[in-house]
Structure of Adenine DNA glycosylase:
Amino acid sequence: MKLPDGWSPRTLAGVRTKLLNWFDKNQRDLPWRRTVNGARDAYQVWISEVMLQQTTVAAVVPYFERFLAAFPDVRALAAADEQRVLKLWEGLGYYRRARHLHAAAKLLVAAHNGDLPDDPDVWAPLPGVGRYILGAVLSQAFDRPLPIVEANSLRVLARLFAYPGDPREGEGKVWVWAAAETVLPAKRAGDFNQSLMELGALICTPAAPACDRCPVRDNCEAKRLGRQDQIPPKKKQPAITEVAEVGVVIRDGANVLLCQRPADAGRWQNMWEIPHALRMEGEDVSAAAVRVARELTGFDVEPGAEIRTVRHGVTRYAITLVCVGSVLRGGAFAAGHYANAKWVAPRELGDYPVSSPQRKLMTALADPNHQPRLF
DNA sequence: AAACCGGGGGA
DNA sequence: TCCCCAGGTTT
């Protein structure tokens, strides 16, 4: 990466020092930053990094504490039942992260006796480990000089060097990784990486950055140009697509059907969708869901309808059929797929991991006064 | 390159 | 409401 005009190696060294000093003084007290003999525990760093993907620090803290209490080390995690791992993840979202974490823990115990080695080649092939997690864990736990790029550091670097394009796309991605590598010091790489993220979280915020409190304000090219509000450009928001989610309860006497899709169900992850073609002319969406569920299962089906909007790039389906107690998106389950289904008493449903929207739906459906909203 | 995964918090 | 968040995987 080419440094802006007027930047010497000395300028760069000054930036590094200022950021590290600022971090030493201003870092937040977070549970995964606890150290033992000056070193961070690789397992704790790893867990925190995975939980923090696309998730705010405030949301993660209580989950991290619970998770660590249940699974204090990689051996405990590897030995755990997947359902218990998912249950502790319930409400965090992106459940595939938990499955990958669990699978990776098993691999590490099988292949490395449960050690978390200071070796990128061991980490790189693990499920759920990309370039960011790799750099974050190895730099923080072992002080390896590996760069990181995530939402915060991307913003800080784009502003510091006034990158004119979008650092999230195309050659911008290449540039921002090169920039992260260029600014990284040989020593204290972990603290330096964290300083970029911490600065992005506390000072160099997406809107209204607090430049007057920034330790590198005198070096920031975006500030010099007065363009800190335009750099980096805002992410394009995908169109809002309305998705109808229809909840149904499938009953056999006192029990309800609980289905969980096998983790390896692959392309069938959306198999509970009711294709438009299955809906009869003029039929309500909710009526179609009940009819199809009844035909698929042959059991009693109670209707319950909810609707919510979701923000996805393109969501083509219009009807989602939800079996009570069934869904962990990105890894769950579907009505009509019985490989992993069982009948359970309604009060036992709480023992199973379910995503929050499904939990809400289940609660509503369990309420005798609930009036399904039909559409 | 684009789509997918989810929920919470702040402005 | 809208925007954002310690990304990775799949197609």
Remarks:
- The first helix of chain A runs from residue 9 to 26.
